[in-house]
Amino acid sequence: MKPFTFSKPENLGKALSIKKDTVQFIAGGTNLLDLMKKNIAGPDAVLDITTALSSKIEQQGKGVRIGAMVRNSAITTDKTILSKYPLVAKAVLAGASPQIRNMASTAGNLLQRTRCPYFYDITTPCNKRKPGSGCSAINGENRMNAIVGYNEQCVAVHPSDLCVALAALDATVATTDKNKKQLSIPFKDFHKLPGDTPQLDNNLPANAIITSVDIAENPFSKNFYYLKLRDRDSYAFALVSVAAALHLQDNHIADARLASGGVAHKPWRWYEAEQYLKGKAPSASTFSAAADIVIKDVKPLSNNGFKKSMLRGAVETALQNCLTA
Ligand SMILES: Cc1cc2nc3c(=O)[nH]c(=O)nc-3n(C[C@H](O)[C@H](O)[C@H](O)COP(=O)(O)OP(=O)(O)OC[C@H]3O[C@@H](n4cnc5c(N)ncnc54)[C@H](O)[C@@H]3O)c2cc1C
Ligand code: SF4
After folding, report:
1. Is 238 in contact with 101 (CB distance < 8 Å)?
2. Which fold has domain 223-322?
3. Span 233-249, mean pLDDT?
4. 213 — phi, psi (to 5°)?
5. Whose Cα sits closest to atom 4 in ligand 1?
6. How far apart are CA 26 and CA 70, in angstroms?
7. Which of 29, 148, 282, 320 has a CA positioned 20 to 30 A from the CA of residue 154?
8. Range(s) of the chain covered by CATH 3.30.390.50
9. pLDDT at 52
């Protein structure tokens, strides 16, 4: 492991004022430490921000503000989240293990790196780890990888469950940059597709800090579901996941949200299927047609063709389960 300096600034201002070539913040450390031990991350300075940032879940206007240091497990037991944003709690509970959720922070979950096996194997080419070296997965072992939104530079997927629910609910990410400028980034713009910079997973400015994740009031607390399909039922990343939420009025779908994990470089919203659902009566045939819309443009890789039918079934099942949630 490369040598680094370590400090624990007591507030945001001090955390942002430390000047080093490569600063890396550490929260729960559940991803960063693995990356440092494997020499995939090699910061000059590690700043422990666990006491510098909020670990509170607070009302924010009519919505909720989840502090960057709120542990994943705290999200799953908070009364406001459980009553008004239960989709978020259900998604978090589908992720990792109780021990990891106890350590993992909200911001760290957004910024965790992909689980593409080649990214973690420093003997293989990987454009995300070493830009310009090539993508080993595109013609290699890619059953866990993307089926939409990828290019020849990178076919990795974003591994988070929390982020799929936050994408579905149009959350925003509150950030402060090194000049102390605050910026609120809509969730749909926070993570990015590989483009020609596959080494970057998101649009967070360099050395900026996430201070909170904010969710506006919404009508999706009654009819929602998070379905995660994976190789084993616990402690495994999604092959495919679906966050579904319906706002039902007079036996019609007034509004719908559908997002997936395990399919793209970022949490993926199925906007066309959402549009299709709006105004329809909730029924098996409506959900089936929405699932067909979801899969019509997906393009599996050499080893993950099974994800197409898996995704179709997951969308249908998640929508059906919205009616009984
Ligand atoms: C075995 C295993 C299984 C897992 N399974 C799942 C799963 O099924 N689903 C799932 O969603 N996740 C899963 N995870 C991932 C886990 O949720 C993440 O590792 C965790 O959320 C990261 O949070 P952290 O606080 O530990 O981040 P850290 O490791 O401390 O940091 C991660 C990154 O975020 C940066 N960072 C942290 N906080 C801030 C901030 N406030 N501002 C700017 N940068 C910041 C760090 O610099 C670092 O780059 C799993 C992890 C492991 C080890
Ligand atoms: S898919 Fe992305 S992370 Fe995986 S080997 Fe290719 S470039 Fe690297």
Report:
1. no
2. Enolase-like; domain 1 (3.30.390)
3. 96
4. -120, 130
5. 96
6. 14
7. 29
8. 223-322
9. 97
Ligand with smallest separation from the Cα of 205 = 1
Q: Where are the alpha helices (DSSP H) in 94-236?
A: 98-103, 106-111, 162-168, 187-190
Q: Amino acid identity, residue 90?
A: K
Fold type of domain 5-48: 3.30.43
- The residue to mutate among 35, 152, 154, having the most atoms of ligand 2 within 8 angstroms of its beta carbon, is 154
Q: Does the global pTM surpass 0.70?
A: yes
Distance 118 CA to ligand 1 centre (A): 19
Residue 178: which pLDDT band, with cuts at 50, 70 and 90? confident
Tell me whether strands 45-48 and 5-7 are parallel, antiparallel or unpaired: parallel
Fill in the DSSP letter of residue 163. H
**Per-residue confidence band for 325, with pLDDT thresholds at 50, 70 and 90:** low
The pLDDT assigned to 170 comes to 98
Closest C-alpha residue for ligand 2 atom 2: 154
| 85 band by pLDDT with thresholds 50, 70 and 90 | very high
Tell me what the mean pLDDT of segment 22-29 comes to.
94
pLDDT in tens, 43-63: 999 999 999 999 999 999 999
E strand or H helix that includes residue 289: helix 284-295
The number of residues making up the chain comes to: 325
